[in-house]
């Protein structure tokens, strides 16, 4: 059984993302999904969910999962890159009241060119990626251009040197 790790970050709720994945899980009971859902109000019924994870548990899930699903937060993006996992990224949307501005769209635009990063913006796109999750390839399984690999390595190296790196991971 493959493991999918869903993380919404800890600073803001992302019920829309959790709800879409939960509904997909209801129709796909053979896929194990573990989620860190933060402060959201929606309580999933078909996935294993917890509000917060300690750093160690987060790292174990990021290491052991087949696929990560996340908002466009840098901590989640970096965890997926660090562990060589494919990442389906759905930016929070100001129109849905999920953030105060659409800065995650800018992050998604810049990051979506990296190998193994798949950006979605709505339920239909996310469900399509989930339906085909076995076909999503990890960054190290893809033919990335030298510039893409260099960018990913630079970002990881830079972030790991920041004193607040540990707090970015959750």
User: How many strands appear in the DSSP assignment?
Assistant: 6
Q: Which strand order do you get reading across the main beta sheet?
A: 3-2-1-4-5-6
Overall tally of structural domains: 1
Helix content: 40-55%
Largest sheet: 6 strands, parallel
Look at the helices and sheets and give the structural class.
alpha/beta
Determine the CATH topology: Rossmann fold
Order of helices and strands: EHEEHEHEHEHHH
- The name of the CATH architecture is 3-Layer(aba) Sandwich
**Which word captures the global form?**
globular
CATH superfamily descriptor: Glycogen Phosphorylase B
Mean pLDDT: 81
User: How many angstroms does the end-to-end distance come to?
Assistant: 25 Å
Supply the CATH class.
Alpha Beta
TL;DR of this structure?
The protein has 170 residues and is an alpha/beta fold.
Written description of the protein model:
α1 (15-27) packs across α5 (123-131). This protein has 7 helices and 6 strands. It is an alpha/beta fold. It has a 6-stranded parallel β-sheet, sandwiched between helices. The protein is globular. It has one domain: 3-Layer(aba) Sandwich (Rossmann fold). The longest helix has 16 residues, at 146-161. InterPro entries: Alg13-like, Glyco_trans_28_C. It comes from Microbulbifer flavimaris.
């Amino acid at each position: 059984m493959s493991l999918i790790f869903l993380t919404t970050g800890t600073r803001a709720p992302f019920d829309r993302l959790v709800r879409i994945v939960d509904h997909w899980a209801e129709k796909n009971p053979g896929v194990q999904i573990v989620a860190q859902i933060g402060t959201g109000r929606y309580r999933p019924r078909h996935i294993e969910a917890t509000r917060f994870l300690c750093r160690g548990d987060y790292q174990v899930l990021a290491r052991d999962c087949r696929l990560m699903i996340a908002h466009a937060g840098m901590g989640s993006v970096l965890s997926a890159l660090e562990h060589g996992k494919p990442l389906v990224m759905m930016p929070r949307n100001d129109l849905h009241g999920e953030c105060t501005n659409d800065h995650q769209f800018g992050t998604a635009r810049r990051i979506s060119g990296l190998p193994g990063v798949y950006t979605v913006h709505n339920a239909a796109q996310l469900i399509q990626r989930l339906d085909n999750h076995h076909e999503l390839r990890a960054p190290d399984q893809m033919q990335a251009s030298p510039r893409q690999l260099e960018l990913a390595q630079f970002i990881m190296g830079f972030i790991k040197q920041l004193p607040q790196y540990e707090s970015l991971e959750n």
